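Why this split exists: single-chain examples teach little about how molecules sit against one another. For that reason, every record in the complexes split bundles all components of an assembly together and asks for one structure covering all of them. Below is a record exactly as it appears in the raw files.
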Amino acid sequence: MTTLFSNRFGHLLAATVTGLGLLLGGCSPSASDNAATQPDRLPVLGFKTAEPTSPADTLPDRIPAFRLTNQDNQVITNQTFAGKVYVTDFFFATCPSICPKMQSELLRVYKAFDQNPNVLFLSHTIDPAHDSIPVLRDYAERLGIQDAARWHFATAPHDTIFALARAYMTGAEVDRTVQGGFAHSGTFALVDSQRRVRGVYDGMVPAEVDRLIQDIPVLLKEEAAGRQTATR
Amino acid sequence: MRAASILRAAAVGAALLTVGLSGCFTERQNEGAKLYANHCASCHGDQGQGLERLIPGVAAADYVALHRAELPCLVRKGMKGPLVVNGIEYNQVMPGHEDLTDSQITNLLNFVQTTWGNHNQPYTIRETSELLGRCNGSDGQ
């Protein structure tokens, strides 16, 4: 009786551990890594839904073309981030639950790279009905972000935002049952200059955000090497 | 088999004992700090520091002392619109907390009133309930 139980339990445990491993591996293979085992190169993450153009075309889809408006009423597109790496998240100004914590963590990342013009930030509002341009500008200024060119607080129609959220591997949807009216995860995505997601991080967990702060220089190094190759 | 059933009985007994005892000796030591961590820290900061000029801190906050009598209703009903804390104007929405009992609000506020540089008079549960009566916010518990 007890052996049966422990056997079953053992299997269950093994399955759970494997499942968890796979799950974590899907997000980021370096989840449990620390600075000592920093990878040389970050993985390319995302989903492959587009038809392959050749047998060699196996990489996940790029972030689709987008057109948003930021807190300075400037139109921002993929071109705004050309040649840069950027970190993105989804929030709304009146969000009473996870946003303040999440944005304070993203602010920590911003402050770590505020001297580096090659690292940009992009926060999407998921409540465009409320978060008008003046509301976004006020929010950004209150957070201490005076330069919209470094950290964009952007709005667009709901469909655009929710589709982008999926591309950035985060969750955002209307949910009238939760406080604030929107359900969303506090995921940060790190995106390279080729419009590919290179890391996803739980913005509510300081250790995950630390990992993001460690990953950004790894990506910057790869980008710099890529530029050298391109100009050679 | 028999050992297992004895073990199970013991486990059930222990569980019942815990439930029974918790009626007498509540696990409400440091309840205020726990409630703060669960209900307030995400916005007001884990050390009461707030978030820049977006969300006011509660640590060493003049507002906490000056508006002592209004705080129970503020926690219960939430608030909206501009307010000034330590000379800085904030303008955010704070959600209400209909899910807390009067005594939980008491413990929560007593934690805030006596922590992180605040040295203000604590509330009794009765006082909190009376203050909550002003906004029809007392649940009498």
